[in-house]
Automatic annotation (TrEMBL):
This is Beta-glucosidase. GO terms for molecular function: beta-glucosidase activity. Gene3D superfamilies: Glycosidases. It is an enzyme of class 3 (hydrolase). The lineage of its organism: Bacteria, Bacillati, Actinomycetota, Actinomycetes, Micromonosporales. PROSITE patterns: GLYCOSYL_HYDROL_F1_2. The keyword Hydrolase applies. Keywords: Carbohydrate metabolism, Cellulose degradation, Glycosidase, Hydrolase, Polysaccharide degradation. It comes from Catenuloplanes atrovinosus.
Length: 458
C-alpha cells in the first residue's frame, strides 16, 4: 500500500560530482584542478587520500549507468570537470573531455534517464587559482566562457544545467576556513570569492541563453534550517548571523538582486564591499528555470563564549559563534543532526519568502558506517533517513511548495573531500581496492519508492 503518492512526472534521481568519482585524473587531456593540488598536499586530507582513481567512473560509465537503470532513476545529476573541458581554464575546448560527457549523456538517454549537469562542483583549474582564483573578478568571466562553450557543445544532449553547486562551500570553506581547496584562510578573500561565484553564475546564464535558449538553467545552493540554542537575545542574534551567511547571503542576490543589509553590516569588519560593482546584482539575479536545494541538517546556534578568540573560519565576521547539538537528537557519521522537519521548513521558507521558481532537492543524504557482510550491505539507518526526508518532501508539496524532483546523495560511495574515503554516503557500496559495486539495502528501498512513485505505509 502506497500512502504518500508524489505528483505525476516527479523526478527521481541520484547525484555525484566529477572529482569524487571519475578518477582518470591525468587522462583524456584533463588538466590539474585545485583539488588535485590540495589533496596531494600532505596533511590536507584524511590518510592523504586523493581522487586520482576514486570510483574509476571514467572507465566504468556503462556499468554505472546500468546500475542507475536498475534503480529506476529518471534523472542523474553529475558534474562536469572544468579541467577536462579547458585544462588551463581558458581557450578552446578539449575534445576528448567533451567526448567523455557525450558518451555519458548518450548512455543515460539510451537508458531513459535525464542527464542533469552541474558545470562547477569545486574543481577550479589550477591555472586559474594561480591567477587569483575566485577572489579575482576575472575568474567569473572565465567561468561564463567555459559555461557557454560547454553548453554549446553538449546542449543537444543535456537540457538541464546547474551553474554552481554550493557556492557557500567554494567560497567560505575554500578561502575562509581553508578546509577545502585551495586551502586559503582569509575572510575578506572568502567574501570576494562568494560574490564572484554568484557573478559568474549570472554571466553564465546570460552567455548560455544568448546561444542555447532552449537550455534549462539554475543554480544549486546548500541551505540549512536554523534554531537558536535558547530563547536569549544573544543566541537569537547568533542564529540570525549564521542564517544570513549560510542562506540569505546567496538566496537574496540570486532571487532578489540584493545582499541582505544585516549581513553586509555583519561583514563590515571583514570587507568594505568595493568588489561589488555597479550592475553586478542585476547580473546575478537572472531569471531561473529552477533552484536546486541541497539539504542535510539543521544548525543550532549559540552566542560566543565570553572572551572567545576569533580563528580562521567559514563564518567571516561571525567566527566565534558556537554550534551545538540538541540532546537526544540522532546524528550521522558526519556528526550532523538528522532533522527531516527542517527540510519542510527550508522548502516552505524559500517558496513563501522569495519569487516563485520551481524547486528541486538536488542533494539529500547521510553518511553511516557501512560494512559488507556475506556479500551484502545492510544500511537501515540510511533507509530511515531517506524515508523521513522523502516524507518531508511530500509534506512540503502538500503545503503548496512547487517541488518537482529529488536527488539522493549519493549514487555511490566516493571521495568525500577532506575526509577522503573514510565517509560513505552512497546507496551503492564501492570497494575501492577492486572497484566492485554492491547496491545497499537503501538502493533497493529507493528503487521501490521510484517504482511506486511514493512511499509505502508505515
Amino acid at each position: 500500500m502506497t500512502t504518500h503518492q508524489f505528483p505525476p512526472g516527479f523526478l527521481w534521481g541520484a547525484a555525484t560530482a566529477a572529482y569524487q568519482i571519475e578518477g582518470a585524473a591525468t587522462e583524456g587531456g584533463r588538466g590539474p584542478s585545485i583539488w588535485d593540488t590540495f589533496s596531494h598536499t600532505p596533511g590536507r586530507t584524511v590518510n592523504g587520500d586523493h581522487g586520482d582513481v576514486a570510483c574509476d567512473h571514467y572507465h566504468r560509465i556503462k556499468d554505472d549507468v546500468r546500475l542507475m537503470a536498475d534503480l529506476g532513476l529518471t534523472s542523474y545529476r553529475f558534474s562536469i570537470a572544468w579541467p577536462r573541458i579547458q585544462p588551463t581554464g581558458s581557450g578552446p575546448a578539449n575534445q576528448a573531455g567533451l567526448d567523455f560527457y557525450r558518451r555519458l549523456a548518450d548512455e543515460l538517454l539510451e537508458a531513459g534517464i535525464l542527464p542533469w549537469a552541474t558545470l562547477y562542483h569545486w574543481d577550479l583549474p589550477q591555472a586559474l587559482e594561480d591567477a587569483g582564483g575566485w577572489p579575482a573578478r576575472d575568474t567569473a568571466s572565465r567561468f561564463a566562457d567555459y559555461a557557454q562553450l560547454t553548453v554549446d557543445a553538449l546542449g543537444d544532449r543535456i537540457t538541464h544545467w546547474s551553474t554552481f553547486n554550493e557556492p557557500w562551500c567554494s567560497s567560505f570553506l575554500g578561502y575562509g576556513s581553508g578546509v577545502h581547496a585551495p586551502g586559503v584562510q582569509d575572510g575578506a578573500a572568502s567574501v570576494r570569492a562568494a560574490h564572484h561565484l554568484l557573478l559568474g553564475h549570472g554571466l553564465a546564464l546570460q552567455a548560455v541563453r544568448a546561444t542555447t535558449p532552449s537550455a534549462r538553467l539554475g543554480i544549486t545552493l546548500n541551505l540549512y534550517s536554523m534554531g537558536a540554542a535558547s530563547d536569549s537575545a544573544a543566541d537569537a542574534d547568533a542564529m540570525r548571523r549564521i542564517d544570513g551567511l549560510a542562506n540569505r547571503f546567496f538566496l537574496d542576490p540570486v532571487l532578489r538582486g540584493e545582499y541582505p543589509a544585516d549581513v553586509v553590516e555583519d561583514l563590515a569588519p571583514v570587507t568594505d564591499f568595493t568588489h561589488l560593482h555597479d550592475g553586478d546584482l542585476a547580473t546575478i539575479a537572472q531569471p531561473l528555470d529552477f533552484l536546486g536545494i541541497n539539504y542535510y541538517s539543521r544548525h543550532v546556534v549559540a552566542a560566543p563564549e565570553p572572551d572567545a578568540v576569533a580563528k580562521p573560519s567559514c563564518w567571516p565576521g561571525s567566527e566565534t559563534v558556537r554550534f551545538v547539538h540538541r540532546p537526544g537528537v540522532p546524528v550521522t557519521d558526519m556528526d550532523w543532526e538528522i532533522d527531516a522537519p527542517g527540510l519542510v521548513e527550508t522548502l516552505r521558507k524559500v517558496a513563501e519568502t522569495y519569487p516563485a521558481v520551481p524547486l528541486y532537492v538536488t542533494e539529500n543524504g547521510s553518511a553511516f558506517v557501512d560494512k559488507v557482510v556475506d556479500g551484502a550491505v545492510d544500511d537501515p539507518e540510511r533507509v530511515d533517513f531517506l524515508d523521513q526526508h522523502l516524507r518531508a518532501c511530500h509534506a512540503a508539496i502538500e503545503a503548496g511548495v512547487p517541488l518537482k524532483g529529488y536527488f539522493a546523495w549519493s549514487l555511490m560511495d566516493n571521495f568525500e573531500w577532506a575526509w577522503g574515503y573514510t565517509k560513505r554516503f552512497g546507496m551503492v557500496y564501492v570497494d575501492y581496492e577492486t572497484q566492485t559495486r554492491i547496491p545497499k539495502t537503501s538502493a533497493r528501498w529507493y528503487a521501490d519508492v521510484i517504482r511506486r512513485n511514493g512511499l509505502a505505509a508505515q
